[in-house]
Design a protein that fits this description.
By secondary structure, this protein is an alpha+beta fold. It is built from 7 helices and 17 strands.
């Protein structure tokens, strides 16, 4: 099996492409063993890029380039990842030796259009992703409302669920215990939830964000979380329609106001790895 490893703002993924390997069987045990950081390769998740079928067609009836299946590091399935899909886009460009390309990707959260600009050596790409419409998220349990108190909060659906919580100051954001708060909040939702703490206390149209990801824990960045946070912050009057989201791993841009938000950010190719069968 040949895998490529990439990161989007420090959120790292292993990518396995069927067009490179032929048919591949992936299960939770394999994902956990590969993503384990001491005994495996190490990653926040694994993405299988499967061959598109004739039935998978876009709204313009053009064929889907690849079907994305995503697992978290703990072996659980996830519907969508904004950082992960950018890594998949760069992996496709690497496999096909393309430096500027557009790809239509079928995900569990719906169809996503990618535009990839990769450098000459396929080391660093900038990828824009049409993220699909932002939907209403799950209901917030009463225990969560009580826990958050006066903090403004709301949920959103990006193909995966998000709880976005506003804090007033950057110092307050930095003081949030993500492991304690994020894990507790995730457990209160029947299907789990990704948790983003944000503040707009800084440059105009800029959010600072810290994230606890369902199935992965504290990560350096979250693409779907950045979009959910920008969308809700815009509804709250904190930012305009072009938002820079600063995360520990770096920044991503979110463009609102169109039929669906656009996420723009980098993908870095770390290595290509051959894994023996045994």
């Amino acid at each position: 099996m040949q895998l490529s490893k990439h990161h989007g703002l420090g959120n790292d993924f292993l990518v396995v492409l069927e067009e490179v390997n032929g048919p591949v069987t992936v299960d939770a045990d394999l994902v956990r063993s590969l993503c384990e950081r001491r005994r495996g390769i190490g990653a926040d998740g694994l993405i299988l890029g499967s061959r598109a079928t004739v039935a998978a067609a876009g709204p313009d009836r053009s064929a889907v380039d690849v079907v994305m299946t995503l697992w978290n590091a703990d072996g659980s399935r996830a519907e969508m990842s904004g950082n992960g899909i950018r890594c998949l886009g760069q992996a496709l460009a690497l496999a096909r030796d393309e430096h500027q390309a557009s790809y239509l990707v079928a995900t569990d959260g719906g169809l996503r259009q990618l535009s990839v600009r990769d450098d000459a050596e396929h080391r660093r790409a900038m990828v824009s992703v049409s993220m699909g419409p932002v939907g209403a998220g799950p209901a917030v349990p009463d225990v969560v409302v009580a826990r958050l108190g006066a903090r403004r909060h709301a949920t959103a659906e990006m193909g995966n669920p998000h709880l976005v919580v506003e804090v007033d100051e950057r110092d307050e954001l930095d003081a949030v215990d993500l492991v304690q708060e994020g894990s507790w909040l995730e457990q209160q939702f029947p299907s789990g939830v990704n948790v983003e703490f944000i503040t707009a206390n800084g440059a105009a149209d800029t959010l600072a964000l810290r994230v606890w990801e369902r199935g992965a824990g504290v990560t350096q960045a979250c693409g779907t979380g950045a979009v959910a946070a920008a969308h809700l912050a815009h509804e709250w009057g904190l930012v305009g329609t072009e938002v820079r989201v600063d995360m520990p791993g770096g920044w991503a841009d979110v463009v609102l106001g169109g039929p669906e938000p656009i996420l723009i950010g980098p993908s870095q190719h770390i290595a290509t790895i051959e894994r023996p069968d045994a």
